[in-house]
Each structure stands twice: as structure tokens, then as C-alpha cells.
Amino acid sequence: MPDSQQKLANKIIGILTVFFMVALLAVGMTLLISWKLEGGAAAINDAGSLRMRSYRIGNLLQHPEPVSGQQANLAGEIREFEHILADLRRGDPLRPLAPPRDNRISQQLERVEQDWRERIVPLLADFDRADDVELQTRAFQSYQASVRDFVAQIDSLVQAMERNYAFNTNLLRTLQVGLIILAVLGTLILIRFFFVQVIRPVDLLHGGIKRMLGDDFSVRLPLESRDEFGALASGFNQMVQHLQNLYATLEERVTSKTRTLAERNQELSVLYETTAFLNEPVGLQDICHGFRRRVRVAMGADACMIRLLGRDSEFMEPVSHEGLSAAFVAEESSLRCGECLCGAVLSSGQSQQIDTANPPPLMCRETCVREGFRTASAFSIVCQKQVVGVFNLYYRQERQFSPQEMALLDILGKHLGVAIENLRLRSREKEAAVYEERNLLAQELHDSIAQGLAYLNIQTQLLQDSLRHEETAEAQEVAERIRNGVQESYDDVRELLVHFRTRASHADLETALMTVLQRFEVQTGMAVNFKRQVGLLQVAEDEGIQIIHIVQEALSNIRKHAGAQHVAVRFEHEGARIRIVIEDDGVGFAPEASRSEDHVGLNIMRERAARIGGEVQIHSRVGEGTRIVLLLRHFSSPGA
């Protein structure tokens, strides 16, 4: 950047300031001279009028006879003469009147005033005091003798003022001519200045740009100054030089960028292909084998191994390998966490790459060296910031991974860790589902078949006791009870089979519910009073199954325990929710005991309702029947 003294803006401001000050001075002088000329003309006019008034006074003195108003006119002329003298002495800005500020004019004016006061005024006073005509005549003659010299003094004053006026007039014309010359010269100087300092540099810059647009990168601008245009020319030359260098290396740069882009595309392809494979529903071995093959091909490795942390979290177990001898795999199968290169990666989570010809201290085993590998690398398999395993890449030649490749392999290790963890989660979900289903089956068996078998066991003991005492009638009665118990257990088994086979979809929930009610009527011989205030629910399949099982369980309890004569099932609204009410007029029971382990069926109903966001309410008293209410969220309904 040029110094402040060399800036083009400073040059322009400086030259314009000089021209402005010169023009301002010239204009100010012309204004001053014109003001003097204007006041001087009035002064010359008033000074010239003094001659006329001197003669007019003499004319008034020439006629001594009383004339009407003669004395008054004489006094007025005298006052006016003195007033003009006073204006010539001090000036009058209102007219304007300004006597020239010249020593000779001032001295001449003082002589006129002195002659007026010392010669003329006394004569006029003598004339005024004269009592007769003779005295007035002598006074007039004296005035006439003095007035010629007095008027000559006034003429000298007027001529001096006229010479000053002529001098100022010539000076004003000279200044005006000078202003014209200054305007012409200033314009020429400014034209020359702007041509040299602005127009020519802009033209050179424009020509350089045109040549550069024509692919002529050899163009350079001359550095003729150190102002803004000099800095602009220097910047232009640097830009052209940079473009020339870029153009010369363009092909090389394009090749480099293309190569880099191809590498990025390859990395993205590997990442996409591997991620897509890891999301496929396959087993652990298949996932590890597929991951191993893809990573080995993508990175050009001679061998690859994947190890996962064992259940004891102490040893790593090989789960997939390729390109390795059986002896290598056998020796590496018992690697502890923290031992050698791979164990250190498992402990720290930091990827490692070593040259086996110069192994670091942490490489305590020489398995890779004996296998003939020059480069060994280990990358962690991570899930939720926990290292769950390590995968290795081995090369028989020296191989140096770039930072991008290291980052890609770390990301692939994280994806593999997530896939392995997802497999384990799905396995746990299946185990949990099996456990839950077995738990439900156990609850169903405990509430039905187990109780029936316990009852039959007691009856069998009573039958044996009756037969031992040869009580035939009692034995027949017990046998009848056993037959009834067996039939009831058989019915329970059939009912459980129906429970586990029952399915409900969006379309057949109503059919399934009506089937349940009809089966209950056949089993018990009781008609079910069914009413609904809303249309049957539109639910998902798993929700429909839970609703059907809750209704089945409620009807089963009525059949087994209620001893009821009438049963009613209703679908009702309750605010924004829907109620399914199952009511009987049986023996009832105490609801406060319904949550104990002896009432497994009721607890199962509550659990099923909770799975679909519902609630089971039980209202009952001993001897007054039972009402079970299933409260559900407001499912969509096609209409009442």
C-alpha cells in the first residue's frame, strides 16, 4: 500500500485545494474592489456636489434684500454642506458611501474641511450679523474672493477621488482577466493531471485486462507511480502471474483432483456396500465373513482376521479369517486383552499400524513375523464407545495407510460393532418373547389344568380310600366327580388350544368375538345379552388378540366360578375412551383379594390390558355378582 503522501487521493485533494484557495482569494479581492468602487462613486458624486453648493451659497449671499425663505435656504445649504463633509469623513454604509482610504485623499479632505471652518464659515457668520446692505455687500465680496480657492480645493479632492476610482477600476479588470487566465490554465493543468494520473493508468489496466481475457498471461503493467494505481498495477501483475502458474499446472491439478475424487468415491462405495451388507438379516458368522471379504478386497490386504471379545471379557476369539495358516490361527486364538498389538488396541481403542521389521515394544509376539508379513495393522470394533473386538489387515509388503484410509477403517469398525450388537439385541428380544410366551402358557396352565389335576388327585385319593373300606356308593359318587373333573380338564385344554390358535385382524375381530360368545353359550347353556353403543373396534392384530383373550378369560371365570344365570356383554363410551363391560349375576367374590397369586387369571387379564395401553377394573361383592370393565384408548370406529 503506498504511503499517505503518495496516495492519488492526496494529490487530487492537494491540487484542488490550491486552485480553490487561489480562486477564493481572487474572487474575494474582486468583491472588495467592487465594494470600494461602489462607495467611491457615491463619494465622488458628493464631493462634486460641494462645488455646486458653494456657488449656490454665493448666489444666496448676492441678494441682500429680504426674500421669502432666503435665510432658511441659506441655513439649509450650510447644514447640507456640513452633512456631506461629515459623510465624506466617516462614510455611510447604507447608501453605500465609502471615501477611498488613501492618505492624499484624506489630507485633501482635511484641507477642505479646514478652509470651510476657518475661512468660509466665519464669512457666512459675518454676513449673517451684518445690519445694513453695505456690510452684507462687503461680506459677499469677501466670500466671492475666498470661494474660488475653496472650490479649487474641492476640485483637487474630486480629482484625487477620480484617480483612485480609475486605479481600482483598472485593478478590478486586471483581476477579472487574471481569473479568466487562471480558469483556463487551471482547466489545462487539471486535464493534464487527470490524464497522467487517472486516464492513462485506467487505459493501461483496461488494455491489460483485454489481453489477459485473450489468454495472454505474459502481459504486465508498468509501475509508474506508488499511488493507488501503482498498487492496482502491482496487484494485477501478481494476479496474472498467479493465473499463469495455475494455467501451467492446470492439467496436473485436474489429474490430482480427479485422483482424489476417485479415492473418495471408492471410499464411499466401500462404506456404502459394507454398511448395506451389515444391515442384512444374517447371522454373526455370515456378517463377519462378509465384512472380512469386503474390507480385504477394498484395502488390498494379503490376509485378514476378525476377533471378538469372549464372554469372560479376558480373551479374544477369532471368528473369521482369510489368508492365514492354521498354525497362525491356533497361536493367535488365545490372545489376552492388553497382550501384544491386538490386545493393546482392545484395551485402548486406538488403531495401530506397525512395521514388523522394526516392531515396537508392545509387540511381544512374533507370529506376524514368522508368517512373513511386513506390515500388520489392528482396528477396533466399537459399539456405544465400548470395544467389542478387533479386526486385522496383514501385508507381505510395506504398506502405509493414509489418514483418510485410517478414518475409513475406524468407521467400518464402528459399523461392524453396531451390526454385532444389533444381532445380540435381536437374539435377546427373541429370548424375551419366548420367555414371555412360556410365562403366559404357564399362567394359563396353572389357572386351569393344574387346578383341575390337583382336584383329580384329591378325588383319586378319596376313591382309593372308599375302595379300601369297600364303600361302593361313596366310591361311585367319587368316580362321578372324577369323571366330571376329567371332562372339565378336557374342556380347559380345548379352551387353551382355542386361545392359542385365535387370531384377530382388522376385518375379523367382530367374527372372533362373536365366536367366543357363541362357544360360551354352547358350553354353559346360558344366553349372552350383547349390546353395543359404538361400532366394533378397528385394531392391530396383536391388540385384537389381547382383547379376545381378555374376554375369553372373563367368560371362562364366569363358567368355572360364578354359578351365574345371566351374562351381559356391552360396548360403551366413557369420555374419550371405550369400555367393554362383562357382567354376571353369580356368587361374586372379594375384589381386594383379586391381586393375590390365587387369582392368576385376573392378573393375566390385567397384564394383557397393560400391553395395549388399557386397564381392567373389577367390581364385585360376595353374593351380588361380578362386573369386569376393560377400558381402552379410543380406537378408530367405523360407526355405531
Provide the fold topology.
Layout lengths: L7 H55 L7 H21 L12 H27 L3 H81 L14 H21 L1 H29 L5 H16 L3 E7 L5 E8 L3 H7 L2 E2 L3 H9 L3 E4 L11 H5 L3 E9 L2 E10 L7 H66 L3 H30 L7 H16 L3 E5 L8 H22 L4 E8 L2 E8 L15 H12 L3 E6 L5 E7 L8
Parallel strand pairs: 7-8
Antiparallel strand pairs: 1-2, 1-6, 2-3, 4-5, 5-6, 8-9, 9-11, 10-11
Helix pairs in contact: 1-2, 1-4, 3-4, 4-5, 6-7, 6-11, 7-11, 11-12, 13-14, 14-15
Task: Describe the 3D structure.
With 640 residues, the protein is α+β, with helices and mostly antiparallel strands. Helix content is 65%, strand content 12%. Helix 4 (133-213) runs parallel beside helix 5 and helix 7 (284-299) packs antiparallel against helix 11 (403-468).
Primary descriptors:
alpha+beta; six-stranded antiparallel β-sheet; five-stranded mixed β-sheet; 640 residues; disordered N terminus; 15 helices
